[in-house]
Amino acid sequence: MPEPDLPLRRRALGAYLGLAIGDALGATVEYLTPEEIRERHGIHDRMIGGGWLELKPGQVTDATEMSLALAQALIAHGGWDLKSVADGFVDWFRARPVDVGRACRRGITRYLLHGTVAGLVNVRDAGSAACVRNLPLVLLNLDDESRLMAQTLQQSHITHNNPYSDAATQAVALMALALLHGRGLAACQGIANWLVAAHPAFRFDPYPGRASGYVVETFQTVCHFVFTTDSFESCVTGAVNRGQAAGTVGALAGMLAGAHYGAAAIPHRWLERLDTEVKSRILEQTRALLQLGLPDRSPAPP
């Protein structure tokens, strides 16, 4: 169970580390079915790398890397600037990442060719990449919900302009915000239920059982495991063992579970395997984003 008075900075660090942990753990079983995972791994709960991307143990994918790129752009600019964010995604893209989703490739290429920071509404943009990379904006806007909602849409539309992607990305941002402020799972579920009321396709109870990168199914899987488990480990393990888009689903489940349970709840065996440079950047970026977002509060490190 989370500590009721867990400091916000520990929740923030838990959310960011949780995102990377879920990504690195889930990438091993990306695109497998639950049955294939059971056949190969039993219960997959070891950070061993491999998978279709042939990753090293603890290596992350675009889910974490685009979050790091977004955060770095915010920190370098000293706050929000849409062009700086788009340029940050370009820098990431040009560094030859291990994986780039189709919508992200299309959006970044459009920006490079035409300088436009938003594409047209596109039915093919209903993936989860904009949602999974959005945590740095939550940390930047902890005390300004309306600004968070506006900036969330702007960063999303660089690569994803779709009503379902928009709605889910904003809802997950609000869910993370509620958990970071210690409002608990009841408040978080209230926001999820609000999304379902507005867009019934997102209904997650009863759980439909699909965990693809389609943002509706990603959201359903993440909500199912966040609301039906009682620890960081059980939440993330359950989510990644659904296979399919396991890295994305694991990252979002880890982010919300980390925001709820805090950094200390993350199993040490996973933390010690996570890529050392990624851990270091997360520590530095969490501290810097909290200082930007909450300048009047104590700058104590996470």
Describe what this molecule looks like in 3D.
By secondary structure, the chain is mostly helical. The chain contains 15 helices and no strands. It has helices spanning 8-27, 34-41, 62-77, 82-94, 102-114, 129-132, 135-140, 145-157, 163-180, 184-198, 215-228, 232-240, 246-261, 268-271, 276-293. It is globular, with a radius of gyration of 17 Å.
Task: Provide the CATH superfamily.
Answer: ADP-ribosylation/Crystallin J1
The run of helices and strands is HHHHHHHHHHHHHHH
What's the alpha carbon Rg, rounded to whole Å? 17 Å
| Residue share in β-strands | under 5%
Low-confidence stretches: 298-302
Give the overall form.
globular
Number of beta-strand segments: 0
Short structural summary:
The chain is mainly α and 302 residues long. Helices cover 62% and strands 0% of the residues. It has one domain (8-293): ADP-ribosylglycohydrolase fold (Orthogonal Bundle), CATH 1.10.4080.10.
Keywords:
302 residues, mainly alpha, ADP-ribosylglycohydrolase fold, globular
Write the layout of secondary structure elements.
Elements: H1 8-27, H2 34-41, H3 62-77, H4 82-94, H5 102-114, H6 129-132, H7 135-140, H8 145-157, H9 163-180, H10 184-198, H11 215-228, H12 232-240, H13 246-261, H14 268-271, H15 276-293
